[in-house]
Amino acid sequence: MGPSAENWPHDQLASSREAKRRRDRMPMQRSADDWSTYQLTEFMAMVSASTDEASAVHETVERAAETLGAEVAAVVASNAVRTAVGFPSGRTPEHELVAIAAGRQDSIEVPGIGTCRAVAVPIDGRAPARLILARLGPESFAAQELALLRGMARVLALTQRMLQVVEGERRLRDRSERQARENAELLTALQERQRLLERLTVIQGSISSGAPREDVLDAIVAGARDLVGDPLVALRLVDPQRAGELRIVASAGIDRAHAQALEVRFTGQGATGRAFTEDRVVVIEDYSHAPEGHAALAPEGVEAAMAAPVHDQERVVGALVVSSRTAGRTYSRAEQDVLRSLARHASLALADVYRQRPARLVRASG
Description:
By secondary structure, the chain is of the alpha+beta class. 47% of the residues lie in helices and 20% in strands.
């Protein structure tokens, strides 16, 4: 699309259109019908290439004004000017154009040009609309020109309907794709919830049947590793003989070479210590740069950690922690809920474990 006629100088606009009007009215080899058909075909090709309604409407007023040698052109819909060309910027006479669309006047005063004869033809669409052209001079638009203008209006209406259908299909496709994504996410969430319930059922059964405490702790740690997906997992309990110390009683994925350095953690230190002190799920992302990070985890390449408190009745006695080596790792609300649920089952299994001497040896099971 070329520059909008609304931005052309008025003298250049008028002389250009007058020259075209004289050229188009000179004797031609084509008949009048051939000329109209040719102009309408060219117009259809240009307008139908529009990608949205706004550009189609603007293309229509520009091409209609150019083809019929009009000084100004506009589209009025629902008593408002949708687009106009040929008027000085910010000086579109909306009231007069609405009056022309309603049939209350048939001329308009164009600043810098003078009085122009106007014509309005209907555009069939969702809302009442008119295509308006105004041309300088005493002559009215000829019947052939009016027929061409009506043809342009019909082409615009068809193009609008086509674009509306395309837009409707696009919205429907987007809605379908969004619904498909939501369904997939829901299915994944349900599957994860089912896995969690199955794992918790096994752990609950082990607790109820009096399985060895070590086996229950291992099952909880393995569940955290499998359900959250992080390779490093540890269950720490407070040492009743050393105030402020948290010791590993079950773990998975911890390198034996670093086990001794990682066995002891102090309350308030790292994700585990904070979960113990604050009695809530604690997430530390970008672990290597976190001020509360544990230096002993540096050799393990830990990038993120999450811990949930473990209780004996109302009292916090430890924490269950998972750690990831994946850069940029974040923990979703669902993953936090999974760890919280496992920590609650650890609480059931550890009703009195804080009174016993904690294991001094890290049992690396992964």
